[in-house]
Structure formats: structure tokens, C-alpha cells
């Protein structure tokens, strides 16, 4: 069974004042093996070294690449994503982060929560994203 996406929408319609293009939905009905990913930050998965960029787009690409790598290692794929939670440290980075994340979520339609926080675990991190996947039976 593939996941059922309830009330799909695109952020270009929901937030017309912002330059966003994310495929999201209001609810996901899923059956299978649940995979919870730790919040991913802009660092190398093997060395835990931070990437050198202070650019929110570059940091978000690294975060999403980590998510892709981890779900692949867990035996799933990005289309198995059910929920994503985005933490940013500056609301001015919201559009850049969400536009970049949207490149990886095109056609997937997970549910999403976004939070602006005062800081992440390391001061140079601008974005952290955690994701929940359900690999179908």
C-alpha cells in the first residue's frame, strides 16, 4: 500500500506573498516500518564535521542530502517520507530554506511543521530538519 496523502497543497498557493514551491499535505495515512531520523544538520555524516558555508541554501542542501542518504541506508526512499519538521534560527532564511527543501520534496507531499528557534546545538547552524518515514509493507 502506498501512503494516502490527505488534502494535498502547494505552498505557492498557501503563502502567495512568499516565493515558495513545496508540495505538502494536511495528513498522511501510512502502514509499514516507521523510520525516525534524528534532526539533520549541515555536517558530514561520517566525520561530523560542519560544512564551511554560512549560506542557508547550501546548509539546507547538505541537510536534505543527509536525509536522502540515511533513508536509503534504512532501506527506504524519499517518497516514504510522512512528516518533516524544520527548525530555522532566523525567519529571514525561511524562503531560502523552504525553496531548497522543496527541491527534494517535489511530488512527495509530507506533512510539515516549521519552527523558528533562538539557536541550534552549534551557533553556525542555520537549519535543522528531522523527518519521519514509513517504508510500506
- Percent helix range: 10-25%
Strand count, sense and barrel status of the largest sheet are: 4 strands, mixed
In the CATH hierarchy, what is the superfamily? RutC-like
How many H/I helices?
A: 3
The number of strands is: 6
The geometry reads as globular
Instruction: Provide the CATH topology.
Output: 60s Ribosomal Protein L30, Chain: A
Please mark out the parts with pLDDT under 50 across 5 or more consecutive residues, or reply none: none
| Secondary-structure content class | alpha+beta
Q: Please tell me the overall pLDDT.
A: 95
Helix and strand element order: EHEEHEHEE
| Rg value | 14 Å
Shape-level CATH architecture: 2-Layer Sandwich
Count of separate structural domains: 1
Q: Quick one: CATH class?
A: Alpha Beta
Model description:
The chain is of the alpha+beta class. It has one domain (4-136): 60s Ribosomal Protein L30, Chain: A, CATH 3.30.1330.40. 25% of the residues lie in helices and 31% in strands. The strands form 2 sheets. It has a 4-stranded mixed β-sheet, with helices on one face. A two-stranded antiparallel sheet has the order 1-2. α2 (56-73) runs parallel beside α3. The mean pLDDT is 95.
Amino acid at each position: 500500500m502506498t501512503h494516502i496523502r490527505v488534502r494535498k497543497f502547494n505552498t505557492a498557493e498557501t503563502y502567495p506573498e512568499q516565493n515558495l514551491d513545496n508540495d505538502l499535505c494536511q495528513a498522511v495515512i501510512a502502514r509499514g516500518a516507521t523510520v525516525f531520523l534524528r534532526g539533520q544538520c549541515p555536517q558530514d555524516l561520517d566525520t561530523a564535521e560542519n560544512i564551511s558555508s554560512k549560506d542557508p541554501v547550501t546548509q539546507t542542501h547538505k541537510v536534505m542530502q543527509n536525509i536522502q542518504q540515511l533513508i536509503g541506508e534504512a532501506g527506504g526512499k524519499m517518497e516514504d517520507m510522512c512528516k518533516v519538521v524544520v527548525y530555522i534560527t532566523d525567519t529571514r532564511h525561511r524562503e531560502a530554506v523552504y525553496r531548497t527543501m522543496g527541491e527534494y520534496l517535489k511530488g512527495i507531499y509530507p506533512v510539515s511543521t516549521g519552527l523558528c528557534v533562538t539557536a541550534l546545538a552549534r551557533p553556525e547552524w542555520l537549519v535543522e530538519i528531522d523527518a519521519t518515514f514509513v517504508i510500506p509493507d
